[in-house]
Amino acid sequence: MKLKINGIEHELDIDTRTSLLDACRDHLGFTGSKKGCDHGQCGACTMLVNGRRINSCLTLAVMHEGDEITTIEGIGQPDKLHPMQEAFLHHDGFQCGYCTPGQIVSAVGMLGEVKDNWPSHASDNVTGDANLSSDEIRERMSGNICRCSAYPNIVDAIESASA
Ligand code: FES
């Protein structure tokens, strides 16, 4: 099977029962997406498929041939962070950091859902103005759990990045 991840096509020879999360982490080395619950409850494994958020633990890799898959590794680069990553840094939107890749991918996808020209890659133009209240952000990000309870800072980061 072939999977296009962060703009590059990868060929894989794996069991068709392999989840997209396991395919990326265990077979392709994209370990940024985390496995928290493996049951669709925590959001640590969030990826974008054709720009939309999914729990990659709940879907089979084989179902995504031909799709554009984006992991946290495709959101920004160490020398050129995505504005959402900058905002998480600036607002201390994490504690242990385990949920952070999923939070950031989900936040980028969420803003893409409400604002079509939001950049999903660091190289895209930076625009905000999504006009989301903190309550809306909490509701739209409710699929991403943070066991450290860094929620106030996470919401602040997303609010500032989207303003
Ligand atoms: Fe996929 Fe928790 S690991 S939702």
From TrEMBL:
Keywords: Iron, Metal-binding, Oxidoreductase. The keyword Hydrolase does not apply. InterPro entries: 2Fe-2S-bd, 2Fe-2S-bd_dom_sf, 2Fe-2S_ferredoxin-like_sf, 2Fe-2S_ferredoxin-type, 2Fe2S_fd_BS, Aldehyde_Oxdr_Iron-Sulfur, Beta-grasp_dom_sf. Residues 1-75 form the 2Fe-2S ferredoxin-type domain. This is 2Fe-2S iron-sulfur cluster binding domain-containing protein.
